[in-house]
Amino acid sequence: MVADGLITVRSSFGPEETMHRLEAEVHARGMTVFAHIDHAAGAAAAGLPLRPTDLLIFGNAKGGTPLMQADQAVGIDLPLKALVWQDASGATWLSYNDPAWLAHRHGLDAQVTAIVGAMTTLLGAIVTRATASQ
Length: 134
Fold this sequence. Notes:
Elements: E1 6-10, H1 15-28, E2 32-38, H2 39-45, E3 53-59, H3 61-70, E4 80-86, E5 92-97, H4 99-105, H5 113-131
Antiparallel strand pairs: 1-5, 2-3, 3-4, 4-5
Helix pairs in contact: 1-5
């Protein structure tokens, strides 16, 4: 399960609990949830089967705006997104885009090093809280 720029972490919890923990941690960090998309519910409404697949779109203008000031096209990849999904064996996973990969994709490597570092640390902490039993 390797995709360019995608970080995937196995969760110790089921899909519903993982998403609940993710959303709670995003809020606790003062970030805004812009959308919650339940792909499995959409598939079911179309009469198609899909294991739990749930997307959270979230962010903070203080973190994302400096990237867009450097190159507005990075707005195609912002706000941040995290996908909680269940594989065929029943394991739950959380996937998200690596901020360093996003900066590299848009040629911003050197310009936004500190911002990307902070974003990477924050996302790592959020994902750990959402997926790890502590």
